[in-house]
Amino acid sequence: MKKIDVLAAVLLVVGGLNWGLVGILNFDLVASIFGNSSFLANAVYAVVGLCAIYQGLTWKSIQRRWAFGTQIA
């Protein structure tokens, strides 16, 4: 599960950077790489969206999986 967590986090960073470029520079990196409204661009958007849903629904269990040993008070 940790590999899925990392993959989802990486894709969310990529998606966030793309939205930052859209907001600041009006430049859609995904569309420029894969073509505007192409199947591949839509697939990237869908996968990033699914990663966001996964992270949102499982954030508590992700925190438990990534806990490191004992906490120091």
Shape: elongated
- The low-pLDDT segments are none
Chain-averaged pLDDT: 88
Number of domains: 1
Summarize the structure.
The protein is an all-alpha fold. Helices cover 78% and strands 0% of the residues. The longest helix is centred in the C-terminal third of the chain and has 27 residues.
Question: Can you give a write-up of this model?
Answer:
- With 73 residues, the chain is mainly α.
- The chain has one domain.
- It is 78% helix and 0% strand.
- It has 3 helices and no strands.
- The protein has helices spanning 2-25, 29-34, 39-65.
- The longest helix is centred in the last third of the chain and has 27 residues, at 39-65.
- The two termini are 29 Å apart.
- The mean pLDDT is 88.
